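Task 17 of the worksheet. Students: predict the tertiary structure of the chain below and write it out as structure tokens. Keep your answer in the requested format; marks are given for formatting as well as content.
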Amino acid sequence: QVQLVESGGGLVQAGGSLRVSCAASGRTFSAYTMGWFRQTPGKEREFVSCINWDTSSTYYADSVKGRFTISRDNAKNTVYLQMNSLKPEDTAVYYCAAARYIISESAAAYAYWGQGTQVTVSS
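Model answer:
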């Protein structure tokens, strides 16, 4: 079992930066691929980024490539998403998720989810 708690969301102006964090419980955090997804009302959850267990591989949605950076600290059981050059269309609830033994951009591959943190980008 893995429990995930996001933090760091908030309101920021377009062009600004924000870092969201996800703290995980459990001793096997380092065995999981960690992903970030986002969702707006009436839309499906959308892949943002993921990172494999040893940080050797990272993946990004085209819409955030070059602006967002995912990282993780296995000693702290925490994954981060640094978001720069934010745009109003980045406004969403951001969720972190954990998947064991798989790297995927599909939400269905992730067994564990946090409760989400709201990110709002004003124009």
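Marker's comment: The CA atoms of residues 39 and 52 lie 22 Å apart. The chain has a mean pLDDT of 95.
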